[in-house]
Amino acid sequence: MGAIISQCSLNVLQQAAENLKTGGLVAFPTETVYGLGVDAENESAIARMYKVKNRPADHPVIVHIADLDAVDYWATDIPDYAIALMRDYWPGPMTLLLKRTEHAKDFVTGSQEMVGIRMPAHTVALNLLQEFAKLGGHGLAAPSANRYGAVSPTTAAAVEQELSQYLEPRDQILDGGASLVGVESTIIDCTKENPSILRPGAITAEMVEQSTGIIVAEPDDKKVRVSGSHKQHYSPQANVVIDGVAKAGEALIAMSDVETPKDVVRLAAPKNLEEYARVLYAALREADKQGIATVNIVMPEGSGLAVAIRDRITRSAASA
Ligand code: TXA
Ligand code: MG
User: Fold this and answer.
1) Residues near ion ligand 2 (Cβ under 5 Å)
2) The model's pTM
3) Do β-strands 172-174 and 3-5 pair in parallel, antiparallel, or remain unpaired?
């Protein structure tokens, strides 16, 4: 259950905000991937969201906000470099980990002392968050709207396919078109002297250094639970093979300059890195839809967004 709503008028978003305020689950579009939204202060609603995702309950979730004022509600001791990042890249595909206030409960942070905050760059998401704030809400916890370990959804139809059988009739799926970025936000730990990137994304290390004037450090705390950093994640049913040779009956994802061998199903032929990130998850889903057993992926080279794409491909191929 959980109907798809394709005309996200203000009226619809007001109703969805009311639904969230009373414990409903509302999947909504963002520029990265679709999120499964829930009031970040409603413990029982968050527990239901974990059930729908089949995700371990001690994992932290990102709090989504529409207004910079909300940062101080959730976080404290904010370093200057984090403020520079907010100014330069919010709204956008970037999550900042900051020291939490008492408002960020254990059920949001996974009992860690830091809270993840993001301002998404999508009209539907921002308007939903604004309507939610008008009702007294302070933020929406929203993990990617997929079952635990599966590929993140970049369309409303993919959310429906993943989750509708676990949603209640009151829950909703807002359709805001295909996500433009296509891979999850960059997660930046801002609780140390230097920022460090825990999950690569469209906001690259180069962009962080340019904005802050500070060198990005290697993450030193391997204990930080970033669920997407478990080795196997973002996995389709199909077997993913990296940089192999595609055989007849198998599928191929590679940049457009790579030719398709005979009788191989070409799932994507992106012309640049932005397009690669945008189409990757939909291509993996398509492999499963077509019942293809093996997907060959040629990884993109270089820095910038290629780092995030290689990260997700490597995880989708990991077997445990
Ligand atoms: O692009 C995105 O970030 C999407 C959209 C919906 O905003 N959301 C997303 O959420 O990818 P999720 O839950 O699938 O992945 C968020 C990651 C998780 O790996 C989680 O462990 C980490 O962020 N995270 C969130 N809060 C954290 C915290 N307080 N400390 C450490 N890691 C945190
Ligand atoms: Mg996820």
Assistant:
1) 144
2) 0.96
3) parallel
**pLDDT tens for residues 95-138?**
999 999 999 999 999 999 999 999 999 999 999 999 999 999 99
d(CA 221, CA 186): 17
- Domains of the chain in start order, with CATH, are 3-212 (3.90.870.10), 239-317 (3.40.50.11030)
User: Can the peptide bond before residue 91 be classed as cis, meaning omega within 30 degrees of 0?
Assistant: yes
Roughly what angle, to the nearest 10 degrees, separates helices 273-289 and 305-317? 20
75 CB near ligand 1 (under 6 Å): no
DSSP string of 6-25, one letter each residue: ----HHHHHHHHHHHHTT--
Residue type, 94: M
The alpha-helical segments, DSSP class H, found in the chain are 10-21, 43-53, 69-74, 80-89, 106-109, 123-134, 156-163, 205-212, 273-289, 305-317
Q: What are residue 4's DSSP bridge partners?
A: 173
Write the single-letter amino acid at 130: Q
Ligand 1, atom nearest to 185 Cα? 1
| Cα–Cα separations (whole angstroms), residue 279 to 14, 201, 237, 275 | 31, 15, 17, 6
Distance 97 CA to ligand 1 centre (A): 10
Chain mean position to CA 239: 22
